[in-house]
Amino acid sequence: MKKILKYTWLLLPLLAVWSCVEEYRLEGAPPTEADANFSFQSTPESDNILRFTADGDFFMMNWDLGNGQTGEGKTVTGTYPLAGTYTVSLTIFNSGGSVTFSRDVVIAETDPLLLDRPIFNMLTGGVDATEGKTWKIDASRPGHFGVGPNPSSPAGNFPEWYQAAAFEKEGSGMYTDRYTFFLDGFRFVMETNGFVYINAAQGSNFPGAFDPGVGDLSAPYEAPDGLRWSLVEAEGALPELTISPGGFLGYFAGGRTYQIVRLTENEMFLRFVDQANTDLAWYIRLIPEGFVPDPLPEPEPEPINPDVNFTVNDLVGNGRKVWMLNPAAGAFGVGPSRGSDAFFPNGQDISGDRPCLFNDLFIFSSNGSYVYNAQGDVFGEGYMGISDGCQPESSLEGTVGAAWASGSHSYTFTPGTPTTFPKITVTGTGAFIALPKAYNGGEYQNGPPRQNESVTYEITAYDATTGQMTLSIDISGDGSVFWNFVLVPAADQSLGLSELTRNDLIGDGEKAWKLKPAAGAFGVGPVPGSDEWFPSGNDISGDRPCLFNDRFIFNDDGTYTYDPRGDVFGEAYMGIPDGCQDADALVGTVGEAWGAGSHQFSFTPASGGDNAKLSVTGTGAFIALPKAYNGGEYQAGPPRANETVIYDVISYDRTSQELALTIDISGNGGVFWTFVLVPAND
């Protein structure tokens, strides 16, 4: 009984959620009171929680549930912890006008348990805090104010595009304002101390707005009396805190409803949508008046003395090493410092939610090649041009994110020093480790990736016993937001080796292949899979149609046929002019043997740490490029008699049937031609 009496002076405002109107009715005649009739019933949670339902459907339906709060839509839910009589009104609108219908609702008994909720107590200090609880912006710590995308990316709710430094907005009015929440009557008091901080787009709504010199606008403003707050906790969504008109928190961007991302005794982290640009979501972090957060650590030599003992041999093992994300909490996340996932997923293990991410392979070889193998599926996001969530890798084909699919790139390794972390830099169009969108100093908002981009990751920790390697990349450019990944060696180090078989090559007995008409299908660079030197990420299929229509045909009987389909791409070493030529132009020249013809082939499956190999034998036998042979290039024809040319199979995607071949023309692992073939289905 004592607890019940303790709450009798409180009145809880409506916690309202509105449903979508299933259909709208526009009529010429105004509605009647009968049209605005409604019913209500108690919910299973409590007799004091009522669900109100309008009898009809109208273009606009506004509710006043008798406790100072409002709702919209056909159905709303209200909570009434205290006994009493409440007048509930529904106003409906159509093209002919509006009408209001009201009825009294009697709450027979008080339910004090509806008041004693942790979220209310943390916000207001609870029933014993007769003076309420006062909050202020947490100005002394970085990230107290910032902006990110709306809707939030799968990375989570945090200001991933911009985070204010400590005291960056000094003089704006943001840091001197105070906000007090009372449980008694759900009152809200806003003390502006003269002026407030507002979005530039809201300046016309605040007479006397001026430039404070820290961005956006400040304006003189005194908040009205009689402000209230309400809080909605809809299932499956962040709680929503709403301040009545005339009040707001921290920074005014046109709205007064705030999503509570995090609320503890000493911290409130809020998200709110910019009403002038709904593609943006703003964030503010508040702390209680009088609370002193832990001091920031003293600046250390930059970078922090890493003491990370990691060498290139740890990265590549015996010449080739396959890495995967560690399927555990902390392996994939973003936060305000190296190794942190405080922004997302905040200590949660997401490997079960994103299996298509945690099966990805990141393969480093001693020859400087880096291979990303998605193993047939990817975790999609909107910036990649595909739907969010696990998707077949083939869904990337033809999208702005196609370059982020499985592929071969190059890497360099920089050893650590007493004051620098070891680093891995991957280079190539679409080259990345773990997360495609993250690059040094930012994140892609839309594909495609920049051509031949280099992305550098710091190795911030390494455990030689477990093999765990932690990578960090600063996407803020100022040390305030880091993506962090923990990789471990794959238990099966044969993963990622070509799964190509002889049957894949010959199909049902004969199979024709052609160059893939896309960027990266024909090029030369310093490592397998690279086209850094030519054509540097460009798609040249349109410039050389006579090359991209060639057919490379493998038969079960071991014969290999080259069919140029009536034209060839000539070069001087062949004895013909450069560019597309009729195939007959080769007749009688030093390059005649490079024309149409039949040869022999052999196939060696992948074994141990060795890739599969494809060999063609015969005078003038080649795949894709006549002049390339093992250890060199022809400067002039004719080709050597009965020559064998061996190509390494660096990748094969069984889903798309893309087959990537490479050949070292330097003889010392310094220059590679790479060709990507696909089945010719015509």
Task: Summarize this entry quickly.
With 682 residues, this protein is mostly beta strands.
Written overview of the protein:
The strands form ten sheets. Strands 8, 9, 10, 11, 12, 15, 16, 17, 18 and 19 form a ten-stranded antiparallel sheet that branches. Helices cover 4% and strands 37% of the residues. Strand 43 and strand 44 form a beta hairpin. It is elongated, with a radius of gyration of 33 Å. With 682 residues, the chain is mainly β. The N and C termini lie far apart (85 Å). The protein folds into four domains: 2-113, Sandwich (Immunoglobulin-like); 118-288; 312-489, no CATH class; 502-679, Lipocalin. This is PKD domain-containing protein.
Number of strands: 45
Count of runs of 4 or more consecutive helical residues: 6
Residues in helix, %: under 10%
Output the structural class. mainly beta
Strand content: 35-45%
Mean pLDDT: 88
Overall domain count: 4
Amino-to-carboxy terminus distance: 85 Å
Largest sheet: 10 strands, antiparallel
Q: What general outline do the C-alpha atoms trace? A: elongated
In terms of per-residue confidence, which ranges show pLDDT below 50 for 5 or more consecutive residues? 1-27
Computed CA radius of gyration, to the nearest angstrom: 33 Å
Organism: Lunatimonas lonarensis
Pfam family, one: PKD
Domain PKD: 56-107
InterPro entries: Ig-like_fold, PKD/Chitinase_dom, PKD_dom, PKD_dom_sf
